[in-house]
Sequence to fold (129 residues):
Amino acid sequence: MPDISSIVSFQEPLGAPSVDHPRPDRLVRGNPARRTWNLFTDATQTVFSGIWACEPGAWRVAYPENEDEFCAILTGRVRLTDTHGASREFGPGDAFVVPGGFEGVWETLEPLSKRYVIVSKPQPVSSEG
Fold:
């Protein structure tokens, strides 16, 4: 049974982040460094949460069908644009969910930091055989 020591704090110090960049074939503008502090992964590896930060830039995204992401913007601004060209912007204090299957462009307009929770749902088992 979990006790108080199992509570995960999102407060500093966070330790060293993992750093990556968008894949070259997905880049739209810039080549932003993205820093991730994954602070919690559940035992089944279906829930991940932490803090993510990114420099300005834009790249194409394609969320897996079985993966939803909750985002709460701490600093900066982001614009999400779908494949039809419709877009929405979010800034400090805004929270939103990107549903599984979303495709479009993630554009970091200003240096951004967010809290995130990613939930991966089990893939349906195919009955074909």
Notes: The radius of gyration is 16 Å. The chain has a mean pLDDT of 94. DSSP finds no helices and eleven strands in the chain.
